[in-house]
Amino acid sequence: MSDGCCGTTTALELEQMVNGPDAGTLPVVVIGAGPVGLAAAAHLAERGIDFLVLESGEQAAASVARWGHVRVFSPWKYDIDAAARRLLEAAGWDAPDPEWLPTGAELIDGYLAPLAALFGERVRLSAKVAAISRLGYDRVRTTGRADVPFLIRLAGGEELHARAVIDASGTYETPNVLGASGLPAHGEKDAHDLVDHALPDVLGTDRERYEGRHVLVVGAGHSAATTLLALADLSADTRITWAIRAGGAARAYGGGDADALPARGALGTRLRAHVESGRIHLLTGFYVHRVENGTVISRDPSGHEQSVTADRIISATGYRPDHSIASELRLDLDPILGSTRALAPLIDPNQHSCGTVPAHGVDELTHPEPGYYAVGVKSYGRAPTFLMATGYEQVRSVVAALAGDWEAARQVRLDLPETGVCSSNLAEAQESRVGLATGISGGLLAAPLPLATVSASGDGGCCG
Ligand SMILES: Cc1cc2nc3c(=O)[nH]c(=O)nc-3n(C[C@H](O)[C@H](O)[C@H](O)COP(=O)(O)OP(=O)(O)OC[C@H]3O[C@@H](n4cnc5c(N)ncnc54)[C@H](O)[C@@H]3O)c2cc1C
Ligand SMILES: NC(=O)c1ccc[n+]([C@@H]2O[C@H](COP(=O)([O-])OP(=O)(O)OC[C@H]3O[C@@H](n4cnc5c(N)ncnc54)[C@H](OP(=O)(O)O)[C@@H]3O)[C@@H](O)[C@H]2O)c1
Questions:
Q1: Stated pTM of the model
Q2: Would you say the CB of residue 36 lies under 6 angstroms from ligand 1?
Q3: Which of 282, 331, 334, 462 is the most buried (most CB within 10 A)?
Q4: CA neighbor of 374 nearest in space, from 318, 414, 323
Q5: Model confidence over 427-447: pLDDT tens digits?
């Protein structure tokens, strides 16, 4: 078994399988080297459990790198996992300013890249997981199932074995579609050259693609708002159209002047001001039905049609998890969100903002398939209420359970303020400190809007 879990099947492994495979001696495989996958690795390392992280990208945190120009809402003190911090500090790392809000790129340079480097070859890049099953068992076979290793097939065909799988593969690779009913709009796939993924670097590397053009932004969350405010900072001949399904943008504007947090209200007011001044042309009740040569046609539930023709379309309609890689495993998924059923009521965006999600761990993340845990933003399915800090607590708990330390696994706790981790008031304050006033290039991307969910208490705000 010198290849560990992860080479092709060796003679010794075959012998062990004939005599009864001992999955317990195999490493744990972590899928994805994002913030949560790497935190899982840190906890596994601390507990002396052998592991391998498989990352599809060419660098650690490949998805974070794609939004590297965006400043997060949570200061550093909430962005660093405790086990990762201990390992990094032991290696001589200087922790960043706990109150600073890093960009995605700063998260990588200041934390995730050094963390991945600690693990050396145990983080394997360009290793895309295509499917997970159990060795010799399809989804239907039961007897002895829990004792056999997981089988992990990579995109290139290579197969690896593992004692447990921590799936931290995120949702960034599977954005929602433009089609208003959740199905791709007619012609959407053929229009892929015209349609950009959410959060392009409008004021940076992607500027030329948008300046002086007519740009349509579809969606009503933080990604749409971030992009709209950046577009508004381009030259005046850049035409901006914003299409939302709702009948009005009140949710997206937040509480305005009446908002409990003045800075947040000011941000909502800024977006509204752009709409009211005509800088951003708002189309409400816009249900994308068809895309034809740059013309996007809406057909609402009553059959009424409207259309807009644009040079570029930015799809900022959120994300959904890809459970297809685990389709041979036994999953118990909430029918609405696609999280586990136990987790769904705790993260429901109708009830919670990011800061009010209660601590949860292995018990809420357990599927009928023993040893498989989806964690991180993937574990939330379609709920946009996820925070790195909650993901770190998830993997602390899951790894404790894998180590047999059920007492630690079940003592879940989360020290998050209800505000200040996922609303933009801190971003605004930081901008003032470093002189990037809101509305100035760079400041816009740094201060996405607190959209929609002002919670019942009036102080939510992160989460669409
Ligand atoms: C713009 C933006 C701002 C955010 N701001 C905040 C914030 O302020 N505070 C906060 O707490 N959270 C924030 N979040 C939410 C969340 O914390 C981040 O999305 C975070 O990156 C999620 O971490 P993760 O490790 O679960 O997933 P990801 O970071 O998405 O990492 C998943 C990794 O898995 C890899 N992968 C995917 N598929 C496979 C496969 N099949 N095989 C192998 N590898 C695979 C990907 O390449 C990626 O590296 C923000 C999210 C976005 C998009
Ligand atoms: N700086 C930052 O920290 C920052 C920046 C961006 C994003 N984020 C975070 O990233 C996560 C994802 O944010 P997001 O904005 O990408 O996704 P999101 O919060 O899921 O918002 C997407 C919104 O688009 C709308 N929508 C969905 N499908 C649609 C369709 N087909 N047509 C029209 N509208 C559609 C939905 O609103 P309706 O149901 O009302 O139509 C939905 O709420 C969140 O946690 C967010 O806080 C953070």
A1: 0.89
A2: yes
A3: 462
A4: 323
A5: 655 655 554 322 222 222 233
